[in-house]
Amino acid sequence: MNIVKGLFLGSAAALLAVGGAQAADLPLKAKAVEYVKVCSIYGAGFYYIPGTDTCIKLGGYLRADVTIGGGSAFNMPAWNGNAGQKNRLSNDYIFRSRQDLNIDTRTATEYGVVRTYFDAVFNWTTGTDTVANGHLGVYYAFVQFAGFTFGKAVSQFDTPWTGYPGNNTSFLIGGYDDVTGINQVSYTAEFGNGVSASISLEDQSSYLQSALYNTSSPGLSATTQSTFNAGWASGVYGTNSYAGTSIPDIVGKIRVDQAWGLFQVSAAAHQVRASYYNPALETSGHPSDTWGYAVQGALSLKNLPTGPGDSINITATYANGATRYVLGGVSPNSFAIYGNSGVGYQSVAFAGAADGVFDGLNNIVGSSIQKTNAWGVRGAFNHNWNPYWSTSLFGSYTSIDYNGTATALICAGGAAAGSVTYTPGSNCNPDFRIAQVGTVTRWTPVKNLTFSGEVLYTYLDQASSGTVVLAGPGGTKPTNQTYELKDQGVWSGNLRVQRNF
Description:
mainly beta; Porin; disordered N terminus; globular
């Protein structure tokens, strides 16, 4: 064995000697090696891009979770669709796997730091994706320079915790939520001592437009009539007749960040712009444009006597003609939950939210836009049992109110179209409330690895009462049957494992 080892070592030495002699004969200058250096200016995880003065940080997370008894991933309640109907087409469990990747770059200049940020997610979800076909989501893509933000970022109206005061679910409504970013041009001024103010122009086309219902139904074809009937029974009270965007939402915010927590006041102006009285005929005219608005107050308290790291986060929001500021970012505008009943075929609670309602054939006999009022409160108490275990208790309350004219338009429109017939003694009122309460417990056995379990209860309180005959409920529900109007509650749960890096 020693002889063999000696032969190998001798051969290697001979090759190195020959190679060295040949290299010495070549008139080449070795190129300097550029090493990746740590950039500590902006915090942990940043490195200089070799050959530049730009620092970069790569991060993200991998998440796997399953929702049980819900309507979609991320613990969406079973509050509409097949899940709300509780039929055999709904999924009792919904898996979702997600990979998030983000890129953060920063460069110091004479005008301050130039920052770019990009965040994208790759998802695979039960019932949405097939075999190996997932889908891509672009959350953030923005540039920050000299106080300005250009691109897709968290709204200036929103809080630092967006729609997550302590929850895992993406469907805790009762306040604003644009966690996946909104296109904007904004400016933030820092006044020192934690005081800042922002003003922003933000794209309303995705997050910020609720429904705008045209409740008239002149000359509906059989196919359109069937769609209209099914929509009405699920809280879609007419044809959604938003026009194209004309003016972005105008948003302002004042915020105070201190060691004790945060206080913030936000406001937004939202243009409500309808298409036509007859969506297929521009000569029918349209209602005059109008403006809605929303205001929000937010409070976060830290350093609580209950334990280190504990916090309370709470928001209160009011909107007129801008209901998405209260319904959150990814929740639906309409709801329909079915249950058992001793009266008729089944019981049902259906409800729909809209920025406004109008009706008519043309400018002569058409109404103006009747704006909808909405308000909500949402919050959470977050407690750390020890460095490894924590629990959050969270909840929300959401209220949608139509004025008397809008209520009359909705109820008359449903009756005129033959979509719904209220039996004698019953009451048609599209107002509704949604209450939610839940809890989540998290275990972090090692740094950046968290296991969590969440339970959520959602209760839909509708203002209508009595019984109705629905011409076409949609889904698998039978037509022209009597249904009892009854408030409904649903449970859902979620299990999650997430690894951050």
